[in-house]
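Notes to self after the Tuesday call (sharing in case useful).
The group wants a holo model before anyone commits to mutagenesis around the pocket. I volunteered. Ligand is zinc ion. Logging inputs and output together so the record is complete.
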Amino acid sequence: MPLQIVHHPDYDAGFAASHRFPMSKYPLLMETLRARGLARPGALNTAEPAPASWLKLAHAAEYVEQVIRCSVPEKIEREIGFPVGPRVSLRAQLATGGTVAAARLALRHGIACNAAGGSHHARRLQGAGFCTFNDVAVASLVLLEEGAAHNILVVDLDVHQGDGTADVLGDEPRAFTFSMHGERNYPVRKIASDLDVALPDGTGDAAYVERLATILPELSSRAHWDIVFYNAGVDVHAEDRLGRLALSDSGLRARDEMVIGHFRALGIPVCGVIGGGYSTDVPALAARHAILFEVASDYA
Ligand SMILES: [Zn+2]
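Result:
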């Protein structure tokens, strides 16, 4: 079966090429997936904007309204890293709706990926660190509220700690948050996940994969998980501008293979989101994000 992928052309909010956030990675990722035969018409799903009622499960009602009306206070926009105009507002709603859609597809098909998402720094009260809405937290709370899932595991392997997800899901006993990240990477003040593993600068493929291999069985033995949200951020890569962990392309592939293979062998649905990745070489960056889809396709 082809891998179910959720996408929308407006995931790209059209930032200038010089912007610190490489927005053009979204259309380039889709081009890469099409070129590699991974994005098949019958398995390509168009994201719809998350309604305010979903967003308010994870975020303060006032902040949700501010984003929808494009009236986010400047102080918060500075913490997010860009102004929240109509295109940014729309993309945040679409990326969140996309992760909810991918989660539902994962429950039905075993695995599905959103070609965006992983905005894990957005906290209950506001966005931060290039993240407007926390798509994985919203999707988790939507599934729990609908009764589509009762036990949710978040495996966040973006190089940055999943502080926003920990903040939103901290008092939700039916969701377990795991973050493995660079100890010295953003955010400076981390919000404790249910399980955090902080790695030193320069951790390469071998040490990274070895650590992960010991943790995955620990995670799967904690509960019967109805679904795993996997944040496959590629900012762990050696050539990433913001990461410090020094993984190679083959390290990324080994990581994705290990996570997806582990949970799929147990019959647990996996919803993949792309997470962070920052490089001025955007085609190379898009190719790194494509690894998640290549690996996931083998399990579709
Ligand atoms: Zn990151």
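Two things stood out.
Residues 158-160, 233, 235, 276 surround zinc ion (CB under 6 Å).
The CA atoms of residues 99 and 114 lie 6 Å apart.
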